[in-house]
Specification:
There is one protein chain. The chain is of the alpha/beta class. The N terminus is likely disordered. Helix 4 runs parallel beside helix 5 and helix 5 crosses helix 16. Strand 9, helix 12 and strand 10 form a beta-alpha-beta unit. The chain has 16 helices and 15 strands. The structure holds iron/sulfur cluster. Iron/sulfur cluster binds next to helix 6.
Length: 332
């Protein structure tokens, strides 16, 4: 696939079909096509509600290997569909929209990484490359380990102590992991467009306006946001954290705004306020932070891809090397 297409975030089409009719149609098609739907926590709540499996990247990658159906519809972004196909090669993996990319994955192209690795080796560095799962399969095939925000510390402990670590592509997550594991890291300068833009001033204002509130941030956020957060963790950890409070709390949530859907479903006793972001296009503050790539997944596109059997993630030659790294990192 030509990833340059993904750099420009195309506008999301809107449709006026009745969502309830679409949901009924999807239910029927799931049965007739022997399909299961996997949905990431960052897609619309409607899609999470019709999914057979929901979760973060780590959970969904593992779920993909357990799905009994012959077809998987992956509501998420491109690298997630690739990981599902790589870990379950015999299954047909469909995506509602192949153009649902990821700004973080695109910030680390495989050819540039290969050149950088060669340059580091030529300069005498003896390192292993640890990649966040938000990378293309071509990048994964160049790496030694794949981590998610859910298993990163455990995997980094598996890198031999005498090796340096090159961490790609998220500089903020890498910096955070380096501080919690005590392992120095060479950081690739990538970042996520959604987590990069949280407004620290608006976060501090929201904290002041909501005395006693708890700030939860994803480790993809920049250090200035993490520094004022009460809890730092990936999406599965956020779910466990809010569920640990029986009494009502107010949470300021610094991650993709759709994450509030599974949080409120699991722990409805709390109030959840999305931390505002600053829109790159205008510099204005927006009320919440949505990932435009995740937003490309819609009920209609799920129905269409189930009905038509496409678009499909097909096996690529470099998937074999990526498979070895993914299996070692996520399944063993
Ligand atoms: S929220 Fe950021 S890291 Fe996640 S899919 Fe969107 S652009 Fe990629």
């Amino acid at each position: 696939m030509d990833l340059t297409i993904l750099n420009a975030v195309a506008p999301v089409e809107t449709y006026d079909e009745d969502p309830l009719d679409l949901m009924d149609e999807i239910d029927e098609l799931k049965k007739s096509k022997d399909a299961a739907i996997l949905a990431h926590f960052y897609v619309d709540g409607d899609l999470q509600d019709i999914a057979d499996y929901t979760g973060d990247s780590l959970k969904l990658a593992r779920d993909a290997t357990q799905v009994p159906n012959s077809t998987i519809v992956f509501c998420g972004v491109h690298f997630m569909g690739e990981s599902a196909k790589i870990l379950s090669p015999s299954k047909k993996v469909l995506m509602p929209d192949l153009q649902a990319g990821c700004s973080l994955a695109e910030s680390c192209p495989a050819d540039k990484l290969a050149a950088y690795q060669a340059d580091l080796r030529a300069k005498g560095h003896d390192f292993q490359t640890v990649a966040y799962i938000n990378t293309t399969a071509a990048v994964k095939s160049l790496c030694d380990w794949i981590v998610t925000s859910g298993n990163a510390r455990e995997i980094i402990d598996r890198v031999p102590a005498d090796k340096e670590i090159l961490f790609v592509p998220d500089q903020h997550l890498g910096r955070y992991l380096s501080s919690v594991t005590g392992r120095p890291m060479i950081l690739w300068p990538g970042s996520c467009m959604v987590h990069e833009v949280f407004s620290i001033q608006d976060l501090l204002r929201a904290k002041r306006n909501n005395p006693g509130s708890i700030v939860m941030a994803h480790p993809e956020c920049p250090a200035n946001v993490l520094d004022v957060s009460d809890f730092i963790g990936g999406t599965e950890k956020m779910r466990k954290y809010v569920a640990s409070f029986a009494e009502k709390k107010t949470f300021l949530v610094a991650t993709e705004a759709n994450m509030i859907h599974p949080l409120a479903k699991l722990a409805p006793q709390h109030e959840y306020i999305p931390v505002p972001g600053i829109m790159a296009s205008t510099g204005e503050t927006c009320a919440c932070n949505r990932c435009p790539h995740m937003a490309r997944n819609t009920l209609q596109k799920v129905r269409d891809c189930l009905r038509d059997g496409r678009p499909e993630i097909t096996w690529q030659p470099y998937f074999a090397q990526a498979q070895e790294v993914l299996q070692r990192s996520l399944l063993q």
